[in-house]
Specification:
129 residues; alpha+beta; GTP Cyclohydrolase I, domain 2; 4-stranded antiparallel sheet; two-stranded antiparallel sheet; 19% helix; globular
């Protein structure tokens, strides 16, 4: 069935591999289950990355994110898993995933995980007058 959640991420060739640029994707409808209670956890994910040779294809990312809906996962584990999977398929120069979870038990947990390719450092920021 088209649109069925899947744990597969597809990529396409970076159209400008000679340049550092940032791709930012906000995913406001992430859900998984609390592994202790089975209750749903909701989060907004913000994926930012500087591609190398490949970029993540958005429909596959949407289906991949949907595959967590019925899975029990601690916030820290799921954030690291998602970033690890993105890095595995497209090997970006830099990637950051920020997972901002909705309130649970009076807390608003946010998990930020990063990847930096060996030898890569960002260009100095340009300050305009």
């Amino acid at each position: 069935m088209p649109g069925t959640p899947a744990r597969t991420l597809d990529t396409f060739a970076n159209p400008a591999p000679e340049r550092d640029y940032t791709i930012r994707i906000e995913i406001p409808e992430f859900t998984c289950l609390c592994p202790k209670t089975g209750q749903p956890d909701f989060a907004t994910l913000a994926l930012e990355y500087v591609p190398e040779a490949a970029c993540v294809e958005l429909k596959s990312l949407k289906l991949y994110i949907g595959s967590f809906r019925d899975q029990g996962a601690f916030h820290e584990a799921v954030a690291n898993r998602i970033l690890d999977d993105v890095v595995r398929v497209c090997a970006p120069r830099f990637a950051r995933l920020t997972a901002r979870f909705n309130v649970r038990g009076g807390t608003y947990p946010t998990v930020v995980v990063e990847h930096r390719a060996p030898g890569w450092s960002p260009a100095s920021p340009v300050v305009l007058p």
